[in-house]
Amino acid sequence: MSSDIILGIDVGGTGIKGAPVNVSTGEQIGERHRIPTPEDSTPEAVAEVVAAVAEHFADVLMPGSPVGVTFPGVVQHGIVRTAANVDHGWIDHAGEELFGQVLGRPCVLVNDADAAGVAEARFGAAKDSTGFVIVTTLGTGIGVALLHNGVLVPNAELGHIEMHGEVAEKLAAASAKEREDLSYKKWARRLQDYYSRIENLLWPDLFIVGGGKSKNAEKFLPLLDLRTPIVPAMLENSAGIIGAAALAAEREGAGRD
């Protein structure tokens, strides 16, 4: 066992998965353990599954080591504020406290896109980058993480900006491509509109694109004409787990100082 090994758990609308992470290197240790998200995804039901995922890795964790947990919604000072893909009983629930109780360990609860952004900044496509980096995850919606010189600015819900009278993610998320059976060329036109709006608002130094479609980045990123460099994410489906673990380690370290 090593103090560098921290558990990260990624709570999603369909699955809850976790793995130990070497937070010095960003390496996921071994295979992820995944349990389906309960159909009745109340705080208590989800917490029970999170505890089961943690128990699966009990033998490789230091006693009392922290756990990082992602959540598909806004998390403000440990309180869940939105819950798009899980039970609405999560709204205004003290999620970080709940998970800490069931895990019997210090817990850091963080928005899932923010966790992915931290992972890419520490260990992935934005490693060693300076300036203002925007990490986007194209999936059911559009998750966004803002980082300036590696420091996270949390809960940037920029997938919800207005675009042609609609919420942007309804038109430009990966789910829109699948739902409307869009070609990559047609989808790229919508992404062009979305990313142009973001870069004209915020003037970033780098865009990073994650989510499942980033595996096929060569089919759509070259079609975009932006002044901001835009590159695919590197950590794919492990980014949330890695970022959550890194944030848990950082807070635990700060607490000891």
Write a brief caption for the model.
The protein has 257 residues and is of the alpha/beta class. The protein contains 7 helices and 15 strands.
Question: What this model shows, in words?
Answer:
It is a single chain. The protein has 257 residues and is α/β, with parallel strands linked by helices. It has 2 domains: 5-114 and 238-256, ATPase, nucleotide binding domain (Nucleotidyltransferase, domain 5); 125-234, Nucleotidyltransferase, domain 5 (2-Layer Sandwich). The chain has helices spanning 43-56, 95-103, 112-123, 168-172, 174-179, 184-202, 239-256, and strands at residues 5-11, 15-22, 27-28, 33-36, 67-71, 75-76, 79-80, 107-111, 132-138, 142-148, 151-153, 162-163, 166-167, 206-210, 230-232. The strands form 4 sheets. Strands 1, 2, 3, 4, 5 and 8 form a 6-stranded mixed sheet that branches. Strands 11-10-9-14-15 form a 5-stranded mixed sheet. A two-stranded antiparallel sheet has the order 6-7. The protein is globular, with a radius of gyration of 18 Å. The protein starts with a strand and ends with a helix.
Number of helices: 7
H/E element order: EEEEHEEEHEHEEEEEHHHEEH
Q: In the CATH hierarchy, what is the superfamily of the largest domain? A: ATPase, nucleotide binding domain
Range of strand content: 15-25%
Strand segment tally: 15
- The stretches of 5 or more residues where confidence is low (pLDDT under 50) are none
Structure class: alpha/beta
Overall pLDDT metric: 94
Principal-axes shape call: globular
Oligomer: single chain
Helix content: 25-40%
CATH topology of the largest domain: Nucleotidyltransferase, domain 5
Radius of gyration: 18 Å
What is the CATH domain class of the largest domain?
Alpha Beta
What is the straight-line distance between the termini?
Answer: 22 Å
CATH architecture of the largest domain: 2-Layer Sandwich
Number of domains: 2
Main sheet record = 6 strands, mixed
